[in-house]
């Protein structure tokens, strides 16, 4: 078997060698605790500041508006629970969408148990939140709108600026989970009216277990981890210095070639989608054909199980996903695919392919050939397909 073809970059990405290189000194020579006073600690303190500066510049905020966390899930939890607690006097209503990551959905469900009220907005058939429904959902007690920047399964990019405007008009805070968008789309939090934004290192070729939450200055968001005075007393715990340094490096690299990289990915993505739709019958694209993340293709193949397809692709050295990593292992179809209106049986036959800048046309050609062969094989074994073909033949004969 040849090399592995990794097409699951929405689940996680390879850490760039430059990132690992940048991190290493902070395990060895510069291992000091940034809170200490001696010289060796000064070095790690300085490195944390530098990473914070890089990240702040990338999203157009002040460096003291960036708070390092242990990843996207923590940032989402903090943003939502932190606002819920701090603004409880003002109201108990939160608006989010049905296609959020579980880090947002399960946090909202948890808050419902504590007495908060949550509206889960529908999306249209391409996975976009409906703005009139958002406006209609606003109540005097609404304290937070949390809507993701771009979806991790179908790549749908939300109308973030419009949502930010609506939130501002109604004096409601706006949090966005930008874990997938950050590093793929240019983001300016001030221009977009974003009050809080979550991001994660390992989704853009940085290390795992490091993320940040942007909190606009002036917001009353409760501290999430209590303890020491780190992160301006809002997130205790000795800083993950190597992680922060690696994250900073990954962001710098991602920002330096964002345009060229994503242009190349879009071309390859569209080539992949076009060929599959043309060459594999009874197949559909999930999400919008243009308004989607540069690296995301999500397809449903009728009459087959996505899980079987995944296993057989894996045997050919191709790593892909049938839903989000968090839901595989469960038999329920993805909540995102159901939210865009797919019937269960079609949602079950779905495949998510997410590219990286290292993905080549050869990788994609090989993958398409394998998909064609495997889908055909699986359909030959499918009683549903057999019935369908019999009916089709009968209708044609009549
Ligand atoms: C991966 C992901 C998360 C979780 O981030 P972690 O750093 O793995 O905790 C949250 N939201 C979205 C949209 C994601 O894709």
TrEMBL record:
InterPro entries: Aminotrans_V_dom, Aminotrans_V_PyrdxlP_BS, Cys_deSase_IscS, Cys_deSase_NifS_bac/arc, Cysteine_dSase, PyrdxlP-dep_Trfase, PyrdxlP-dep_Trfase_major, PyrdxlP-dep_Trfase_small. The keyword Transferase applies. Its main location: cytoplasm. It is an enzyme of class 2 (transferase). One of its GO terms (molecular function) is pyridoxal phosphate binding. Homodimer. Forms a heterotetramer with IscU, interacts with other sulfur acceptors. Belongs to the class-V pyridoxal-phosphate-dependent aminotransferase family. NifS/IscS subfamily. This is Cysteine desulfurase IscS. It comes from Lachnoclostridium phytofermentans (strain ATCC 700394 / DSM 18823 / ISDg). The lineage of its organism: Bacteria, Bacillati, Bacillota, Clostridia, Lachnospirales.
């Amino acid at each position: 078997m040849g090399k592995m073809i990794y097409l699951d970059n929405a689940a996680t990405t390879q850490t760039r060698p430059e990132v690992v290189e940048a991190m290493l000194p902070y395990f060895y020579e510069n291992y000091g605790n940034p809170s200490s006073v001696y010289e060796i600690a000064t070095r790690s303190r300085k490195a944390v500041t530098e990473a914070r500066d890089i990240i702040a510049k990338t999203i157009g905020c002040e460096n003291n508006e960036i708070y390092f966390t242990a990843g996207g899930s923590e940032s989402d939890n903090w943003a939502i629970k932190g606002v819920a607690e701090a603004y409880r006097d003002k109201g108990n209503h939160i608006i989010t969408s049905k296609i959020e990551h579980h880090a947002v959905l399960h946090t909202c469900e948890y808050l419902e148990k504590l007495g908060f009220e949550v509206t889960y907005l529908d999306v249209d058939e391409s996975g976009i939140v409906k703005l009139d429904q958002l406006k209609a959902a606003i109540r005097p007690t609404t304290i937070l709108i949390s809507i993701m920047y771009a979806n991790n399964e179908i790549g749908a990019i939300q109308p973030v600026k419009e949502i930010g405007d609506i939130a501002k008009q109604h004096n409601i805070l706006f949090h966005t989970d930008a874990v997938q968008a950050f590093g793929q789309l240019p983001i300016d939090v001030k221009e977009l009216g974003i009050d809080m934004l979550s991001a994660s290192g390992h989704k853009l070729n940085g290390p795992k277990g490091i993320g940040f939450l942007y909190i606009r200055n002036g917001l009353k968001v409760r501290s999430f981890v209590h303890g020491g005075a780190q992160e301006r007393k809002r997130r205790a715990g000795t800083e993950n210095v190597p992680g922060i340094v690696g994250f900073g490096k990954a962001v710098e690299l991602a920002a330096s070639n964002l345009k060229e990289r994503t242009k190349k990915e879009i071309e390859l993505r569209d080539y992949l989608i076009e060929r599959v739709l043309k060459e594999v019958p009874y197949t559909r694209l999930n999400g919008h054909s243009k308004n989607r993340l540069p690296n995301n293709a999500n397809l449903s193949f009728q009459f087959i199980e996505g899980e079987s397809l995944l296993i057989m692709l894996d045997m050919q050295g191709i790593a892909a996903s049938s839903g989000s990593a968090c839901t595989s292992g469960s038999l329920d179809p993805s909540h995102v695919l159901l939210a865009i209106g797919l019937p269960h049986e079609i949602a079950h036959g779905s495949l998510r392919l997410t590219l990286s800048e290292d993905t080549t046309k050869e990788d994609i050609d090989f993958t398409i050939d394998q998909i064609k062969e495997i889908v055909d094989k699986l359909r030959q074994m499918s009683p549903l397909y057999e019935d369908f073909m019999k009916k089709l033949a009968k209708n044609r004969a009549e």
